Amino acid sequence: MATELSPSQVVGRALEFFNEAFRPFVVESLRHVFGDRWFMAARNGPNFVAGADTEISEVQMLDGRFQVSVDEDPLLWDTRVIIHLVLAHWQRVFSPRVPALLRSFLFHMKEIRNQWAHQSSFSWQDAYRSIDLVELILKYIGSDQIAEYAAVLRRQVLFTYAQQEMNHLQHQQRLASLVLNGVCSNVQAPVNFNPSSHQDNVGVLAGEQDRSNQVSTPPPYPSSAGTVYYRHHLHGDIEMHDS
Question: For residue 65, what is the DSSP state?
Answer without folding.
Answer: S
